[in-house]
Write a structure and sequence with these properties.
3 helices; nine-stranded mixed β-sheet; 11 strands; about 180 residues; Alpha-Beta Plaits; about 15% helix; 2 domains; alpha+beta
Length: about 180
């Protein structure tokens, strides 16, 4: 029977259990032995991290060949025009190749916890929220995609991995599933 833990990672926490520099890690939040993160989430991103003791499940969720879908709530600088949204949907040319097509929708600002530290805002530049669903997981992909279309990411929250979401899980807390 596989152990599955859904963790709502706060901003600034590394998706690993040790850090030689002493920064916050998963070990500061999850006292469960022998589980490993299925994929990574950048230190400056927040949201869902799935941990498991099953190597098979870990590979299914994180290996690119399985194309597990993940949805991110992304606050970007400025208001993307329809043409920018189409580029995000159809594939963004990046130095490491064109991204796979993505699901992209404009959304109302989600009801999220305050971020500590707060997101840097510019008084005269509006922000906009997008839901972006990917089936690949390149390094800092969402941030690179939004920057490539002229709308840098200000806040990034992974909302969903496969069929699991952060619904009902406070930042810094985890839920262990019975499977």
């Amino acid at each position: 029977m596989a152990r599955i833990i859904l963790f709502n990672k706060p901003w600034g926490v590394l998706t690993q259990f040790t850090d030689p520099e002493g920064r916050p890690t998963l070990a500061d939040y999850i006292p469960v032995p022998r589980v490993h993160a299925a994929g990574r989430l950048d230190r400056d991103s927040e949201g869902l991290v799935v941990l498991t003791d099953s190597g098979r499940l870990q590979a299914r969720l994180s290996h690119p060949q399985h194309q597990t879908s993940k949805t991110y709530w992304v606050e970007v600088e400025g208001c993307p025009a329809p043409a920018a949204l189409e580029v995000l949907r159809n594939g963004v040319p990046l130095p490491d190749g064109i991204t796979l097509p993505a699901g992209v929708q404009s959304i109302e600002p989600p009801a999220l916890w305050p971020r500590d530290p707060p997101v840097r805002m510019r008084r005269h530049i509006p922000t906009h929220w997008l839901a972006i669903t990917l089936r690949e997981g390149r390094n800092r992909q969402v941030r690179r995609m939004t920057a490539a279309v002229g709308h840098p990411t200000l806040r990034l929250v992974r909302y969903r991995v496969a069929s699991w979401t952060i619904d009902g899980i406070e930042p810094g807390r985890y839920l262990e599933l019975s499977v």
